[in-house]
Design goal:
Number of helices of chain A: 9
Distance between the termini of chain A: 32 Å
Helix content of chain B: over 70%
Strand order of the largest sheet of chain A: 6-7-8-3-9-10-11
Radius of gyration of chain A: 19 Å
Oligomer: heterodimer
Shape of chain A: globular
Radius of gyration of chain B: 20 Å
CATH superfamily of chain B: MetI-like
CATH class of chain B: Mainly Alpha
Number of domains of chain B: 1
Chain lengths: 275, 221
């Protein structure tokens, strides 16, 4: 079908104000890689470094292409990424249609994703000619996602795209994100602090705490899942969480595992793909 | 009379156009620069607000006069002085109204914040592209306010014009000077007409500024 996916390899370490990031990640450029951790742990900073919006010493190679190393720093506007911010951040002076086409008109890559595709994927039909001030929160975020997709990204970066929405709006946008995942072959780096969201959307997880990346949690493991699900039914979530932590599983990871179990999804197998 | 009004409008119009072009890069730099000394530049730009117009006019008279070193480069073109000329008035008006153009544009640029430029960058817009496609359109209300203020402020200018213009008919005689002259000559009726005209104009200006402010306040996302 297509060639084997390359990898996204990033290492950043440095200070930004009084925050220190010391992050390293290596993940296949396919599917959804979730960067998971509590707020203030450096997920957003890491994502901004990948986009080129922030500059910290380090190295970034995406599918064999060097975006940053000691000698080179590709400016943000030359990186083929799509970025979805926590707040939709639509351009207030443009209609929905012109917001969607802003990146599309500027990309030099082959235009694989068309306006029609994005409009039907994200249900934006009836919104195209509207001004952005007259959109609901969920609609704004869908336009922001569509706009990022239309810039023909080779890597989609999403920074808590659901965090600014209430429960109902979240439930409205989440199915679109899942379709994104299944319909388009664009690798996604997805930042969230919500374990349920991480469990539902991610193919693999990387935890962050206090600016440091943890192990990569690579694949779903049904056998381990069945065992843990049985244990959950037996002792309840709080006890299982303590048990997991007691066996040396980092708390963020235990939280993810529980969220996955409670959502009826198989949990994650821990591998040492990180550092 | 018609000539005086036309000259006044022409002076204000030319000043407004030139000043908007000149003030934009200055306002952009003041809004975006991280340099610690930028407020020194900001203070120099704002000086005409508090400086007595006669002081400004005095220095301009020296700077544009025949003995000024600033005039030396123009000597080969047969221009000895710009004092008491229309061109001199334009230069004086630009300096006099500079803060009224720079401040609203600077505020408008600052109000945009960082995010729209980050959005533009992640959508492949180079910094120059983003300046024209994002910064300028988003700062449009600021430009409108700057244009109105500059135009109105130039119409109302008196001290500077008196110092460097001298009131030469058809060249430097503008409305505010004419009103002064009419009152001196005890021609109250014509003074009334012109003063009334300027009063209505000033009211229209303030009203339009307030309406712009109200509308943009509502439009802000």
């Amino acid at each position: 079908m297509s060639r084997a996916p390359g990898r996204i390899e990033a290492r950043f370490s440095g200070r930004l104000g009084d925050f220190t990031l010391d992050a390293e990640l290596s993940t296949p450029a396919a599917g959804v890689t979730v960067l998971f951790g509590p707020s203030g742990c450096g997920k957003t900073t890491l994502l901004r470094c990948v986009a080129g919006l922030e500059r910290l010493p380090g190295r970034l190679v995406v599918e064999g292409e060097v975006w940053q190393d000691e000698a080179r720093f590709l400016p943000a506007h030359q990186r083929p990424v799509g970025y979805v911010f926590q707040e939709a951040s639509l351009l207030a002076h443009l209609s929905v249609r012109r917001n969607l086409l802003f990146g599309f008109q500027r990309t030099r890559d082959e235009q694989r994703i068309t306006l029609d595709q994005v409009v039907s994927l994200l249900g934006l039909d009836h919104l195209l000619e509207r001004g952005v001030a007259r959109l609901s929160g969920g609609e704004r975020q869908r336009v922001a996602i569509g706009r990022a997709l239309l810039s023909q990204p080779r890597l989609l970066l999403m920074d808590e795209p659901l965090a600014s929405l209430d429960r109902a709006r979240k439930a409205e946008v989440l199915p679109y994100l899942e379709r994104l995942h299944s319909d388009l072959a664009i690798p996604i780096l997805y930042v969230t602090h919500d374990p349920a969201e991480a469990a539902r959307l991610g193919d693999r997880q990387i935890t962050l705490s206090e600016g440091r990346t943890g192990p990569v949690i690579e694949t779903r493991d049904d056998a381990q899942g069945a065992r843990l699900a049985a244990r959950l039914a037996e002792v309840g979530p709080e006890r299982l969480f303590e048990d997991l932590c007691a066996t040396g599983v980092p708390p963020e990871l235990a939280q993810l595992t529980l969220a996955a179990l409670l959502a009826g999804l198989p949990p994650w197998r821990i591998s040492d793909g990180g550092r | 009379m018609g000539e005086i009004i036309w000259l006044t409008v022409k002076l204000a119009g030319i000043t407004t156009v030139l000043l908007l072009i000149l003030a934009t890069p200055v306002a952009w730099w003041l809004a975006r620069s991280q340099a610690w000394w930028k407020e020194i530049v900001g203070a120099v730009v704002a000086l005409p607000i508090v400086l007595p117009p006669t002081v400004l006019g005095f220095y301009l008279l020296l700077a544009l006069g025949p003995d000024s070193p600033l005039m030396a480069p123009l000597q080969p073109f047969g221009i000895r002085t710009l004092a008491f000329t229309f061109e001199g008035l334009v230069i004086g008006s630009i300096i006099y109204s500079l803060p009224f153009a720079v401040q609203p544009i600077r505020n408008a640029f600052q109000a945009i914040g960082e995010r729209p430029f980050e959005v533009a960058a992640t959508l492949r817009a180079s910094p120059i592209d983003a300046f024209f496609s994002v910064a300028l359109p988003l700062a449009r209300p600021g430009f409108l306010v700057a244009a109105i203020l500059t135009f109105a402020h130039t119409i109302g200018e008196f001290g500077v014009v008196l110092m460097i213009g001298g009131g030469i008919p058809g060249e430097t005689e503008v409305l505010s000077i004419e009103i002064y002259r009419l009152v001196e000559a005890l021609e109250w009726d014509r003074a009334h007409q012109l003063a009334g005209l300027l009063l209505v104009f000033a009211f229209a200006v303030m009203l339009s500024l307030l309406l712009i402010e109200r509308r943009t306040g509502r439009l802000r996302p």
